[in-house]
Amino acid sequence: MTEADKAYAKIFQPFAKAEHSTTLVIAQLGQSLDGRIATSSGESKYINGKAALAHLHRLRAHVDAVLVGAGTLVADDPQLTVRLCEGRNPARVVVDPTGRGIPPGKWLANDGAVRLAFSAGGQAPAECDELIRIEAGETQAFEPCQILQALAARGFHRVLVEGGSRVVSSFLDADALDRLHVLVAPMIIGSGRMGLELAPILHLSDARRPAVTTFVFDDGDVLFDCDLRSGSQTGGRA
Ligand SMILES: NC(=O)c1ccc[n+]([C@@H]2O[C@H](COP(=O)([O-])OP(=O)(O)OC[C@H]3O[C@@H](n4cnc5c(N)ncnc54)[C@H](OP(=O)(O)O)[C@@H]3O)[C@@H](O)[C@H]2O)c1
């Protein structure tokens, strides 16, 4: 194993160590050089190359649950399963923060993985194993910690927040993420959906500066592994 391989393997160590009762939350964003995760028409397949896609599947294989927003289901109809590496399919979780209803799609495949929905008032398809009500928060569309507590109560402690922009941004704004993986493709889209849209700050001194390790994949994509519990930023999960 090369030094680079050893460093890469270290990324997954916190997941192996996570004790049964400890929640560990990671988010990922696959984006262009200019920070876009989709075109203005919502197309995001595929900004990143094959190596980054395999990395995403490796992340899925290391978590108990993978979570996406309803907007991502509508745009991408993802399967959210582990196919490009060895590993068990995690539970699939969809969040509908505005109560428009949980969309149907491939995420409801009957493959033995648990399928959960969180909605602020909307309905879920019959195949969904459980529909959990969420309340809209005062300053954001939903409270990520409420979702994490409900998942932990069901035995899902290691969680991958896979997108889209609103859901990942809400988790980051709420300080509910331990790690963030930004996968940057050497591509300029120039318009479209930004990866992160956070609450505004006035001063650069208020910006998050997490401890970051970078990895360059063979096809040119770069992974920024951001440890949000290290570096110079404040806060922590409530
Ligand atoms: N490159 C990547 O890594 C990556 C990963 C995942 C997703 N994506 C892209 O991110 C985009 C989605 O992100 P997002 O921020 O828009 O949404 P999202 O975070 O996936 O989902 C949350 C939003 O979806 C909307 N929504 C809720 N229920 C809906 C329904 N039934 N039908 C349609 N929309 C509904 C809501 O917006 P309203 O306020 O409009 O109700 C809600 O705020 C897509 O273009 C997807 O391709 C990229």
Walkthrough of the structure:
This protein has 238 residues and is an alpha/beta fold. Strand 10 and strand 11 form a beta hairpin. The strands form 2 sheets. Strands 6-5-4-3-7-1-8-11-10 form a 9-stranded mixed β-sheet, with helices on both faces. Strands 2-9 form a two-stranded antiparallel ribbon. It has one domain (22-231): Dihydrofolate Reductase, subunit A (3-Layer(aba) Sandwich), CATH 3.40.430. The longest helix has 12 residues, at 50-61. The chain is built from 6 helices and 11 strands. Bound molecules: NADP nicotinamide-adenine-dinucleotide phosphate (NAP). NADP nicotinamide-adenine-dinucleotide phosphate binds next to strand 1, strand 2, strand 3, helix 4 and strand 7.
Return residue spans where pLDDT drops below 50 for at least 5 consecutive residues: none
Strand content: 25-35%
Q: In the CATH hierarchy, what is the superfamily?
A: Dihydrofolate Reductase, subunit A
CATH class: Alpha Beta
Short note summarizing the structure:
The protein is α/β, with parallel strands linked by helices and 238 residues long. The chain has helices at 3-10, 13-17, 50-61, 70-76, 144-153, 165-173, and strands at 24-31, 36-38, 65-69, 91-96, 115-119, 130-133, 158-163, 179-184, 193-194, 209-216, 222-232.
